[in-house]
Specification:
Number of strands: 21
Shape: rod-shaped
Structural class: mainly beta
CATH class of the largest domain: Mainly Beta
Number of helices: 1
Order of helices and strands: EEEEEEEEEEEEEEEEEEEEEH
CATH topology of the largest domain: Immunoglobulin-like
């Protein structure tokens, strides 16, 4: 019999291996998140006292290939050599076969986006039992670092405020003006100075950043004034 648990691992971007903290632990059939580049524990328990071996298989997400054996252990808890694979050197057997409820939990260090896929635990004995866990690495929305927190502009002139974000799944992005009204991200006519807010959201969460838009100064202000002067002259001649 096969059992399937769909699991999502939420990660934080820009986390290096040395900065990673915490361990993924099982709760009610799911795996709580910490971040990418950390250790995950995939739980599996069974009560067969006549089993011959426990084998963990892996199938990469989106792959049409066959299962890859990543760990094989006998009833004494001794590992049986398997072919080299992407998890070689990163797997640790955390289980314990001494108790009636035998534990075949497997830990994988430095879990990354490219490790996504199905992990199947198979107990070989009088009956073969399997459980498959699908693990995905996803990212909550994050406002891009290219989004500036301060910007200058001229009233009545077009302005473009960068408002971009990344995430998996791809987040929705909105630009909100000081009056709470949504604005076109590609550009709009500046009607007031103040705090504009770049927002990004998906089913995994949200992120935002404030952008303060103030009066242009120096050369930028001169440019604004020249433009306004030219527009005024044009309007004057047009009316007359």
């Amino acid at each position: 019999m096969n059992h399937y648990n769909s699991v999502l691992i939420y990660t934080s971007r820009a986390i290096s291996l040395t900065e990673a903290l915490g361990v993924f632990t099982s709760t009610a059939g799911g795996i709580k998140y910490k971040r990418e580049y950390t250790t995950i524990e995939i739980p599996f328990t069974f009560n067969d006292n006549k089993f011959a071996s426990v084998i963990w298989y892996y199938k990469k997400r989106g792959s049409s290939g066959s299962l890859i054996t990543i760990y094989d252990v006998n009833p004494q808890g001794e590992s049986i050599p398997v072919d080299s694979n992407q998890f070689t050197g990163r797997i640790e057997f955390k289980g314990d076969f001494a108790n009636t409820n035998r534990d075949a939990t497997l830990a994988i260090k430095d879990f990354m986006k490219q490790d996504e896929g199905n992990f199947t635990c198979e107990v070989r004995g009088p009956k073969i039992r399997r459980q498959t866990v699908t693990i995905r690495v996803t990212d909550p929305p994050e406002i891009d670092r290219s989004v500036k927190t301060e910007q200058v502009g001229c009233l009545g002139r077009l302005i473009s405020i960068t408002c971009e974000a990344s995430g998996d799944p791809e987040p929705d992005v909105n630009l909100i003006g000081p009056d709470g009204i949504g604005l076109p991200i590609k550009g709009f006519v500046l009607k007031e100075f103040g705090t504009y807010r770049c927002e990004a959201f998906s089913r995994l969460g949200n992120d935002s950043r404030n952008i303060t838009v103030s009066q242009a100064t120096g050369i930028s202000l001169i440019s604004c004034n020249i433009c306004s002067y030219i527009v005024a002259i044009y309007i004057h001649h047009y009316i007359n």
